[in-house]
Amino acid sequence: MLAQVFDYLSGAAKNESDQPDQQSDQTQPCLPRPSIGLALGGGAAKGWSHIGVIHALQEAGIKPDIITGTSIGAVVGGCYAAGEMDKLEDFARSLTRRRLLGLLDVNFSGKSLINGTRLVRLLKRYLDDMNIEDLPMPFMAVATELATGHEIWLRRGHLVTAMQASYALPGIFNPVMVNGRHLVDGALVNPVPVSLARAMGARIVLAVNLSDDSFGRGAIIPHAYDTEEVIRPCDDEETAKAQAASLGGFKNMIFGSDQSPGISSVMFDAYTIIQDRISRSRLAGDPPDVMISPRVNKIGMFEFHRAEEAIEAGYAATQKVIDDFKEISDDIQA
Fold this sequence. Notes:
This protein is 43% helix and 11% strand. It is α/β, with parallel strands linked by helices. Strands 1, 2, 3, 4, 5, 6, 7 and 8 form an eight-stranded mixed sheet that branches. A hairpin with a 5-residue loop joins strand 3 (139-145) and strand 4. Helix 2 packs across helix 12 (307-319) and helix 6 (117-127) runs antiparallel to helix 7 (159-166). It is globular and about 65 Å long. The two termini are 49 Å apart. Residues 1-30 have low confidence and may be disordered.
């Protein structure tokens, strides 16, 4: 017993003698670099700007430790976390209206406009059935449970299925069945997933809000005292002409015409209004440390063929906040 005590005390003394002088180490940083979270928001075709955001961060030497994404943000974020963003960017830049229409397999089941099988097959080709937990960096996507409205955090399992659930906009894509739950677009509950990044341990959170550029949206226009504003009966004949003009083919049905908006226009405009209102509320309660707001208001939510313009907008918006990020990072490490 005494021998064991002696050995223990001898070992403790040796460990103390091996420790360097604390005063000589004062020039070394006391804390590691704070973890960085990148929260990529939803916004359909506008989400190609996330690619430009990541490019600008890489050029500035800023590497996120954690990635979270909603909807198109989950697609770009998942591809980045998997190390396949270059392939996604090549695909995005190659899109034309014609090729886009070729990827849209019309659904006749009555659940949605598009089945989405071709898009899923394309993602699987690039990502080779990866699982989220096997990615080189932490990643999480957000979806919405259709039956309850619950916010679902997808952090384990099949990566492409998580992406598919996160972008499954109701009426456009079929709900995705995950563990007995029908999941749809995460932007219905959390358009810019700052809360996910913080929950995963991010000390500094950069967020990309694709609806922040919608200046003037959601304003209240009072007509109670406007004597010139009168609601008149709708002209049934003009309505019929507009509807007939929009039935010239599948292209008009999707994109609309000069006389009438298409299905996608109606769906996505309504979706944008909802997303903008929810984003304001969520970000007011849990704001990011740095907000990136690409100027993509003029890009329609179904105009995926305008990838180059969106990528440039994301790159430009990120360059404006690089100095703010570095200042915050320096303050935390000080």
